Amino acid sequence: MKIAVCGKGGSGKSTVVALLANEALKKGFQVLVVDSDESNTGLYCLLGFDRLPVPLMELVGGKGSLKRKMGQPGVLQESQIAINDIPEPHLVKRDGLGLVAIGKILQSLEGCACPMGVLSREFLKKLTLKANELAIVDMEAGVEHFGRGVDTSIDSVLIVVEPPLESISVGQKIHDLASGIGIKSIWAVMNKVPSEEIATRLRAELEERHIEVVGCIYFDTDIFSSSLEGKIPPQGVAVRETKDVLDSILLRADIPAPG
Ligand SMILES: Nc1ncnc2c1ncn2[C@@H]1O[C@H](COP(=O)(O)OP(=O)(O)OP(=O)(O)O)[C@@H](O)[C@H]1O
Ligand SMILES: [Mg+2]
């Protein structure tokens, strides 16, 4: 399964990606996290790595080179890419967990992020996974990645929604765009929810919009305070809630845990 974690800016996408990756590892999956956010750089830290992998953009010669190749049928030579095929500096890994990054905007006036979208789309399309492997993609905030066609290369979308109405509206837009390109597995996870009462109301708002809810991660002060160091706590309430979210996703996608 290639699952894209989407949502409004700041809704908790990267946190949910890291929590889900940790839970999937505990279940015995090999997990590849794909950092498709061209602005933020801290995902490697949340995942417990000490460095960001060299972005795949460098593998194809950088943005300038990719821009020149953009009209061509493919920018990556391989027709299929297995996790183990990703060359060393572009993949950081430990204990069944790998991280790749598509590319980052590093300088002002370096041009738009379209080449990142092209590379994300092609990399994700060519990425081939075994039954015990999961790819979890940390998408950039909002919906522009749909405009760039990145989501045509994934099979499932998890929308992270927090209580503000604006987050629900972006969630709905993501849901509609994803179903518009034929993605069948689209779910929402409620995040940073402060109380059961708000959880009930938020769930009702989502269900009214025909968005299937796979779980709820309440506002967790440990998560929030660990974020000051760029980390997530190894255990706690959010970790337990994420386990339920993952179970629910695997059940719906009919994916058995390995072993
Ligand atoms: N369940 C939670 N409880 C408490 N704080 C949370 C929770 N989920 C996320 N946060 C906090 O919310 C902030 C934003 O989270 P995060 O960076 O994961 O969001 P994001 O959607 O990836 O943001 P961006 O759009 O900038 O990539 C962080 O400080 C994070 O610790
Ligand atoms: Mg993020």
Structural class: alpha/beta
Helix and strand pattern: EHEHHHEEEHEEHEHEHEHH
Structural shape = globular
**Helical coverage, percent range:** 25-40%
Largest sheet: 8 strands, mixed
Bound molecules: adenosine-5'-triphosphate, magnesium ion
- Write down the Rg: 17 Å
End-to-end C-alpha gap: 17 Å
Average pLDDT number: 89
Low-confidence stretches: none
Quantity of strands, as a count: 10
Placed side by side, the strands forming the largest sheet appear as 4-5-2-7-1-8-9-10
Total count of helical runs of at least 4 residues: 10
Q: What is the strand content?
A: 15-25%
Explain what this protein looks like in three dimensions.
This protein is α/β, with parallel strands linked by helices and 259 residues long. It is 38% helix and 20% strand. It has an 8-stranded mixed sheet, sandwiched between helices. Helix 7 links the parallel strand 8 and strand 9. Helix 1 packs across helix 10. The model has no long low-confidence stretch (mean pLDDT 89).
In a nutshell, what does this entry contain?
By secondary structure, the protein is α/β, with parallel strands linked by helices. The chain is built from ten helices and ten strands.
Helix/strand layout:
Layout: E1 2-7, H1 13-26, E2 30-35, H2 43-46, H3 56-59, H4 62-69, E3 81-82, E4 92-94, E5 97-101, H5 114-126, E6 127-128, E7 133-138, H6 144-147, E8 156-161, H7 165-180, E9 185-193, H8 196-208, E10 212-218, H9 221-226, H10 237-253
Parallel strand pairs: 1-7, 1-8, 2-5, 2-7, 3-6, 8-9, 9-10
Antiparallel strand pairs: 4-5
Helix pairs in contact: 1-10
The structure holds adenosine-5'-triphosphate (ATP) and magnesium ion.
Magnesium ion binds next to helix 1.
